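Supplementary Text 2. Reproducibility record for the structural model of the 400-residue chain.

All settings were left at their defaults, and a single model was retained for analysis rather than an ensemble. We include the record here because the model underlies the residue-level annotations in Supplementary Table 4.
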Amino acid sequence: MQVLRGVRVLEIAEWGFVPSAATILGDWGADVVKIEHPRQGDPIRGLVTAGLIPGASGRNFFVEHLGRHKRSVGLDLAHPDVRAVLDRLLERSDVLLTSFLDPARARLRLEYEDVRRINPRIVYARGHGQGRTGPDANRGGYDGVAFWARGGIADRLGTPGRPPLQQRPAFGDFIGGLAIAGGVAAALWHRERTGEGIEVDVSLLGTAMWVLSPDITAALMYGRMLPQAGAMPSPPNPLVGTYFCADDKGLVLMMLQSERFWPLFAPTIGRPDLLERYPSADARRDHADTIRADLTAHFRTRPRADWIALLAPSECIWGPFQSPMDLPDDPQVAANGYLLASPTPEGTVHVCANPVQFGGSFPVIDRPAQESGAQTEEVLLELGLGWDEIATLKAAAAIA
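Retained model, structure tokens:
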């Protein structure tokens, strides 16, 4: 269900953080126009995938994922002849998404008050690294810095005495993009009630603190931090943890209510003797290490598919320990439309849907990622420009 059908989004942003919000809004039905420099394009187009995945083709996986639903328009925003075109785009847009820092927005006359004078109903959403005020407000902030490192994520996911973990690509960007998209939806509701646009602001640092809020709240309440991920002790409940099977594939148990699940779990895996030997919560807590060692050996006796066949009909809480390569074969992924087919000239590419669904329907990609500036003429014609005006702008190198 395209709940944002008819909403026009203008994306003046680069890399992954803010553009991912536009992708989500496109999944929800919005018409997204992405502004790119007519010669350089979004810098993320320059990432070479073979540098991350040896043997991969030259297709940029970031562009395929982030570029769906979007019409790319090549405009040199610094060119004086482009301002009238930009103003027309702003006049007709419901939402502006930008990642530009204050100096660039001021230079381009793209600050909130500038845009509001052109379109007072516009929802103006801004994403950045460290927050809108403070000494580092105008410092650039990729998610590897502002989210992963400065926000405490890397520290809490680390192991004492070992080098910090490297974050996954765009890990904080896409979480932050969800926050921006949610903020835009709330702002559109505000506009529906009041008739006025509003400014939305999301930072990668603030996103990290929200993601890490249980750790932060605990640290500030108790004056000491919870253990790092690599130093977490074994849970006292042996029904919580990862167990590997005969084929080295893992199963994760997450039965936090031991008293409830122990009578179900032990017979399900063919070990009713465990229920007899450890009938009470106290007994299981006192012998947790012994039970865990017993379960570790027991799961190693059969391949994971056999254990899944036993556990699936039960009420036990468990899941397979999977890699990205496993996900297309997960029946829940297919049943819920969590992977989307995106047609390209080289064949179908599968990209991840955003996790929000409406009315039980899945997003559909009608427009896969486009080349930089591919829809420049199409959009300018919609704005009312004639072919002579377009030709003049092209001759001046103001548009793609």
